Amino acid sequence: MKVVRTLLVEEDYGKRRHKHRHKQRPYVYILSLLLIAAWVLVIWHFSTQSYQQQTIQPWLHKWSEKVKIGFALPDVQFTYGELDYSLRQRPYDFVEFIFRKSAHLFVYAVLAVLIYGGLRYRKVRMWACIAAALTLVAIIASIDEYIQQFSPNRTSSIRDVGVDLLGGCGGIALYMGVNVVYRRFRSPRRSSVKRK
Known about the structure:
The protein is mostly helical. The chain has one domain (2-49, 92-195). It has helices at 2-47, 51-54, 57-66, 91-121, 126-148, 158-195, and strands spanning 77-80, 83-86. A two-stranded antiparallel ribbon has the order 1-2.
């Protein structure tokens, strides 16, 4: 009789706990939607800025005056779009280009993680989450590039949408990798608690 009573109490406690969790979920989901909307607004705000507002070249010139490089730079060259970049011939343009594309990767990696994480929290299937996150990244990146063409001395390029998608893929892959590592570190603790 005691065993049955204990099982009923545990089942009732489990139901109440599940209901409590279910009540909290909409708030977390709304918070994730607000974070996504805020991040998209930040991205689009940067799209409206002119090249002069965003350039890091004045800072690079000041920094290079303080730090003297005592060796010849390697001759790294590549073409992106219609422009040629050379580390030796135009180092400031080269470094600024790398900085800008890294910023693209980071910004869209965060966006993809926010979308993916929000959908996974709602128990949506993993592949559906990935597809939805990357589709939204592509749409927002396309709008971002469209806005940029109206900003002074800025150009829009379909290549940048590709860079943004790479950032989204990288962000999701990193997020999933961190989750796997976290679960592996967490699972031995659970099993040791159960054994005790």
